Structures are given as C-alpha cells and as structure tokens.
Amino acid sequence: MKALFSPGAARYIRGGLLALFLLVMVLLPLLASPFTLRLANVIGMYALVAMGLVLLTGYAGLASLGQAAFMGTGAYTAAIVASRYGVNPWLALVVGIVLSVIIAWLIGLVTLRLKGHFLALATLAWGLVITGILRNWIPVTGGSTGLGGATGHRFPPLSFFGTELRGDRLYFVLVWGALLLVLLLTSNLMRSRVGRAIQSLRTGSVAAASFGVNVQSLKMLTFLLAAAFAGLAGGLYAFRERYVVPGIASLDSSIDVLIMAVVGGLTSLWGALAGATIFVLLKEQLQQVMPLIVGRTGNYEIIAFGLIVIVVLQRARRGLMPMLDGLLPKPPPKPVKEQAAPLPPGPSSNVAQGEALLSLEGVGRNFGGLAAVHELDFDVRKGQITGLIGPNGAGKTTVFNLITGVLQVSAGQIRFAGQAIQRKPPHAVARLGIARTFQHLNVIGSMTLLDNVLLGAYARTRAGLFRGMLRLDRAEDESARAEALRQLKRVGLGDDPFATADSLPLGKLRLLEVARALMADPVLLLLDEPAAGLRRHEKEELIDLVKRLKAEGATVLLVEHDMEVVMSLADHVVVMNHGQKLAEGTPTEVRRDPRVLEAYLGKEAA
Amino acid sequence: MFDIPLILASEGLINGAIYALVALGLVVLYSVTNVINVAQGEFVMLSALTVASLRAQQVPGTVYLVIAGLLAWALLDVAKHLRSRAPMKALVSLAWPLVAGASVYFIVLLASRASLPYLVQILLAVGLTTLLGPIFFRTMIQPLPRASVVVFLILTIGLHLALTGIGLAFWGPQPYTLPPFQSGSGLRLGAAYFGPQALWLLAVVALLLVGLWWFFGRTLQGKALRAASVNRLGARLSGISVVRAGSVAFTLSVFLSAVAGVLITPITKMAYDFGFMLGLKGFIGAIIGGLVSPVLAVAGALFVGVAEQFTAFYISSAYKEVLVFLLIIPVLLVRSFQHLDFEEHVE
What ipTM does this complex have? Predict the structure, then answer.
C-alpha cells in the first residue's frame, strides 16, 4: 500500500499529536476539576509502574507479577522513614526507590539464571510475602489500617522551596512531570546501545551473548529499572495520599498494572500511558455498570478485565499504541552521517598469518552418558577458511556451541590466540573477537536492517545506561551507524538500510547476520550452516561474499552441510563423524578419502 | 510428646494431598503445552460451588459457562471454515456445540430438580467442570499456537480474573460448605484423627495418583502425551497430534482440580476466591518439582501442606502464608546453580 502522506507530512502529523498532548498536559492542571485531576494523578502513577513492565516484558521478554509489590515497597519505605524517623520526604522517596531496587536485585539473583517464567512466579510470591508482612507487622506498618491518614501518624508532605505539595493540582505537576521525564529518558535509552541490546534479549539469550552482551547483567539491569520506576511511583503515591494501606502492594494491583501494559501495548512506552488511562477510566465506569448487570454489589469489573486481556492477546497482541503507530505515517528515518569519525577497531590478535588462531585439543562433550563429541583436535589458521563438515548428527553443532561457550566442554581445551577459552561464558568469548551467525536466524524482524546490524557493535562501543538516557552517546552512535551502513554495503544490502528485517527473504537475512557479525570487527568469523535453506543464486551470492571477506584477510570457520559451498570456499576441511574427527586436509584430499565417501554415501560408494 | 507434631502432620497431609492434585495438573499442562495456568485453582472452586448449587436444587452457573464456551468454540470453528470457504462444515460446526450445549443444559436442569443422591451430584459437578477443559483449550490456548510461555501466563491471569469474577457473580461472596461423602466415625492413629471425609480424600487422591501413573506409563494416550511433552516436533512426526495432546492435558488438569474441589470443601468450606490460594500453594509444590517432575511436584505439595501447619503452630499463624511463599526462594536458588550450560535456560 502506498503511503498516504509523504514522510515530511508524517513528521508534522506526529509532531502535531505530541503538541496536542503537551497542550492537554498544560491545560489540565489549570482547568480540570479536582476529581479529574485526582484520576489523572492515579493514572500517572500507575503509568510509571506500567512503563517499567513494558521495559521488562515487552522489550526484554521477562514477566513480573509483582510490580505493585515494588510500588508498595517504595510507598511504605517512604512513609515509614518520613513519618516515624522524621527524614526529609524527598530523601524518604529516594530511600524507598533504593529499597525496591535492592529487593529486586535479591529476587533477580535467585531467578534470572532460570527460564524467564520463574521470575514471574518469584515476583508473584514476593507480592504475597510483602502483603503478608504489611498486614501483620503492625508495630511498624500499622497492619491492615495502614499508616498515616486517619490513623494519626504525623506524615509530612513533599514540599518544593517552601511550598507544600498538597492537593491534586500541584501534585499533578509533580506526578506527570516525573512520568514524562522518565518517559523521555527511557525512550532515549531504548534508542541507544544498551536499549538495543535489551530489545535483543527477546530473540534469545544466545544471540544477545554473541554480540558480547552479558545477558544476566542486562536482564538484571532491566529488572532493576522496572523496580525503580515502581518504587518511585510508590513514593509519589505515599506522599499524595499521605496514607498507605497494604492493598497497593497486592497481587491484584500487580495484575492491574499488567493489564494496563497489555492493553496499551507491551512494546510501547506510550502504551503504558494509554493503558493506564484506559484502565483507570474504564474501571470507574465498570464499577458503576457491572453491579447493575449482576444485580449485586461487588468487584465484577474483573470479569470484563479478564476477558479484555484474553481478547487482546488473541486478536490484537501488540496492544493499542503499536496499532495506532502502525496506522500513522512513518516519520523519515534519521540519515546516516557517512563521514562520522570511525569506530575504534575490534580486538586484535598477535597470531601470524597461517598460524593456528583457534585450536581444539582433545575436546569432548557428553550428554548424559552419550558422547556427542570425543577427543576432537583441529586448528583454524589465521587468514584461512576452515570448513567443518560431517553427516547429520556428527556433532558439528555441538562443536560450534563448545567454541562459542554456549555449552561447557566435558574434556579438553579450546585455545584462541593462545588463551584457553573453554571456561568462558558466551559474551566473554564474543568480546575476544569471535563473531558468529546462526543457522536458525536470530534477527529482530520489527527492527530496521541498520538497527539489526548496530547490535553487532555492542562490544565495540561504550555508551552505558546513563549516557544512553541523557543522549550523551550521539558521537559514538553516529560513528556506529556509519559503520553499520558500511557493513550493510559490504554484504550487498546497502540499498535500503531502513527497511524492516521481516521484509527480507531468507537469503538476504543470512547476509544481514554476516553484516552484524562483521560489525564487531572480529578476529574470527564463525558461520553456522550459512547455506541451509538457500536457493541457488542466494548460495552463489553467499560464496562470493565469503571469498571477498577472505581476500580482505578474514579468518573463517565454516560449519556446513552443503558440500558444494565447503568445497568451493575452504582452504582446509575437517570431517566429523559420530563425534570424532574422520579426516582432514585440503578439499581435494578430503574428497578422495574413502572413509569420507563411506560416511557420506554408504559403503558401496567407497 | 509427639502428639502435636502428629496432629499437625495429619492436617498437613490432608491439605497437601489437595495441593498435590493442583500441582500435578499444573505440571501435566506445562510439560505438554507450555501453559502455566494461573487459573488452576479456580476450577477447584467451580466444582465445589457447582455441587452446592445442585444440592440447593438450583441450576449451577457452571452450565452457563459451559454454554458460553461452546458458543465461542462454535464461532471460532465457523469463522475458520468460512475463511477456507467450506460453508457445509461451517454449518455442522455451528450445529454440534448448540446441540451439546442444549443437552448439557437440560441434563443439569433435570438433575437439579430431581433429588439425586449426593455422590451422583458430586460426579455430575466434577464432570460438568471437566467439560471446561477442552472448551478452554479450544477457545483460549489453541488460537495462539506459537505463543511464548509469558504470553500464555498473562492469558491465564485473564482467565483467573474472569473466573473469579464469574464465581462471585453466580455464588456471591459467602462461603459454602458441603457435607462429608459419608457420615460415621473416622480413624484414630495415636493423637492424629482422620475424619471420614479425610479418609475419602486421601483414598481418592491415592487412587488418582496410581491411575495417573498407569495412564502415563501404560496407555498409548498417556505415552503420546509424554512424547509430546518431551519433543513436540518429534511427536508430530510420529503421528501424535499436538493439538489433541494439548486438549487432553488441559482436560486432565481441570479434572484434577475439579476432584480436589469436591474433596476438600466438606473439610474447609469454599467461596469464590478460595480456589486461587489453593492454586498458588499447588504452584509452590509444582515449582519444587521444577514444573516438570510429577513425582517431585506431589512431594513438594505434601511438603507445603505439612510445612504450613507446622509454621502456623510453632512460628506464627499470621505469617504462615508468608513463610510458605518464601519456601520457593531456596528452591529456585538451588535450581539456578544446577545449570552450567548457557543453552539450558534458553527456550
């Protein structure tokens, strides 16, 4: 379908909508009724919590069923510290955030090494635990009646240069100011190096680690950010009401936040705002209407919300804001400054041309009692293309996983540029200068080609969380983008760098993965069955590319099924069968070897 | 001097047996379909309250849930057949759920008017609740064939909310009680006393465990389910329908919860929101079994039941729940250090 608007007009339309939103933000505290402002403040605080969940669930692919528990932690900590110990309310707010983050860190330590859903179950348990504590630790938390409000605890308000922030009108400025600031910082972050890496977690940890991302720490970082947002929302909540009750930390509230994020759109920061708005307003209405339908008072709105969640997940999985975003015209992409300063080079090795760069010495790996790889020795020499071939089940993929640190060796040693690497985790292996592609593609379909390739620069760039949030990474980002475009051109995909990856056929996606791997400026390039599933002309394109790379001095280990590809590319071929080395030599030698013929074609052929 | 521990252990065993049924349902469902069903406990509630309605000679709300589910099923099938331009098939797929829904309605209507024996009412309630298994699989899970664990988890949270609210709408907030299956004297073992209902409960749970062991170990259907849980693609290649396996797993897990509901209610009462807490304790048991081992899940659930009684008595009854949920921390800690390979915690 042809775009309805030119990209230039798209910028005006989006800019206009943003201006309208900001206008409403300015007019609301001036004109709206106290009731509306009160709702707006509740929306703002929940949106903050929901935004953390978007980051965690939508971007990093981790679910939490305890975001309200972190909110409750922030609220109660702020309340207790300020009302019992007379600490300055602003400081109390910060203490609340810090404690939420510390608890999230402890939960993360226990669960983040496990499959993603254990985090959801652990945070659910934490939600039940904290509500239990808040209800029963009466001397400190006030029990079910809560703290502050009518219970008579002295509960100071936040104040700003002598002005006490009481009432929803002033508080609106505080809540929505904080929310929009967090929104701005987070959306900056998501466009930065760290943000792109967070988004790559969804496609699988192995892929992210192959760019040099320490997956555990990045998951932890995302979880801590989400907890910090919730803790901040909790503190704001405490000082607005100057009254806290256990209910705010409950599982029900956590589920409310989840519904907001799902309805608004789990992959959109604005979705958190939209979702919170819809949820709070709809709940108001449903609480009036549903009891009339049922004919009894009660919280029947949960029926409607339950059904809404189910229908949204089944029929509109992306949620509201991403769908609206799809309807609006796309703004023009930011052009790449090709003359930007070059990125620093990747890691280098002092191995001479033709010497062993990677050596496997007596490498073995058992699964249960089964030896998938046994006593395997071979070298990959600098500047050469080494082919690793073998029939199905020969153990090629296992070898690949052992080299990249995805699997641990059971025996033997793997040396890279003289250094033993068999105990290193995948991201550390990647950071030594070993880049890889995947047999089962690991590209992010919704991202542009340029952004996908940028992921590969993770180990070569530096900008961290704060530089990303504050956009202090622009110079580095320009350099990385220019480099990404160069790599796209190098593999022949430079024509449309802003197309989304899901618009490409398989053959081009394989080239995209090569470009991403090259982005690391690797010492050694590992290609995992790059020809699998390719058509003839795509295969030829790939062979040409690898030949060109070799001419430019690349060292390649090619694990491949396709004999034609291996024979036309490799300088040296290692043949595996039943987890062991069967033969090695030049392609011609290997092709004549009767044992190889037997393994591939059966006894008669030999 | 062992009187109190003995009493606590027997109480814990009874609750633990119920958690075990829930935990088993969770494990079976997760290993076959990747669905973590947060709403598992709601089926415990539904079957128990269905019996309460039948005893009061009312048509239980569960029937309307079944009918609504069948209608949704029919609509999904009709849409599917119309898309593939098969109007005759569409007509058939519209017809049978209507017929089935109407028959269920009239059977239950008659059953609620007639003064059926209590045990028949119980069987009817379990059967009616179990019908929700295939219905929910078809209407909730099957439309999302390649969804991630997290998406399924959020989906069943929606299901949990909807069923809790529907339970409240049909039965109101008050707790219901049911009479024991049998009156008479129980069994005294030292200080521990098992009432007649507790004996029924333990016997039925034991019977179900043996039955499941036989089902998964000996029958073709059970082996097919196990195959589907180990390797979906491989199972499909050997002619096992993954959809069918999912449907059977969902039905089985709902059945286990439904049985748990009618067994425990004579002892503890039941209200619209009690099922969720039972479900969560079953979760703790299932997590102890890593969500995949049925044997460990049962052991974990029994342990949760017993630990709960002991903490309530010796430490604090107020913090009983807190301590039970904290149990998963050491379990997860141990599990997270078992994995050395990077690939194993990657889907």
Answer: 0.92
